[in-house]
Specification:
Layout: H1 16-27, E1 33-36, H2 43-49, H3 61-67, E2 74-76, E3 81-84
Parallel strand pairs: 1-3
Antiparallel strand pairs: 2-3
Length: 95
């Protein structure tokens, strides 16, 4: 059974990304976790992957949503923590 946890509020600078990253990491100590970076700044991507967001250009959640298939765009952080990365092109997505 899957459980979805989201962190969302319009106000910037209130620790959403930090909280999401820490909670994802802690939960991954006992469960399999897929974190999804839905912020075009890609801060969760940089936090968890410890690399520049542009290293994932063309392999992000944007392409996953456009193709309606996330599987090819999931990146391994650890054995139990995976991430759908984001970069600034996410801001171009329209549903």
């Amino acid at each position: 059974m899957a459980i979805t946890v989201t962190f969302s509020i319009q106000k910037g600078g209130c620790a959403k990304t930090t909280t999401a990253g820490i909670v994802s990491y802690i939960l991954s100590q006992q469960h399999r976790v897929l974190a999804c970076d839905l912020d075009s700044q890609g801060n969760l991507t940089e936090l968890l992957m410890q690399t520049d967001i542009y290293d994932f250009h063309g392999r992000t959640i944007l392409e996953a949503m456009q193709e309606r298939n996330a599987a090819p765009y999931i990146h391994k952080v650890t054995d139990t923590l995976h991430l759908l990365t984001a970069d600034d092109l996410l801001a171009t997505f329209s549903s």
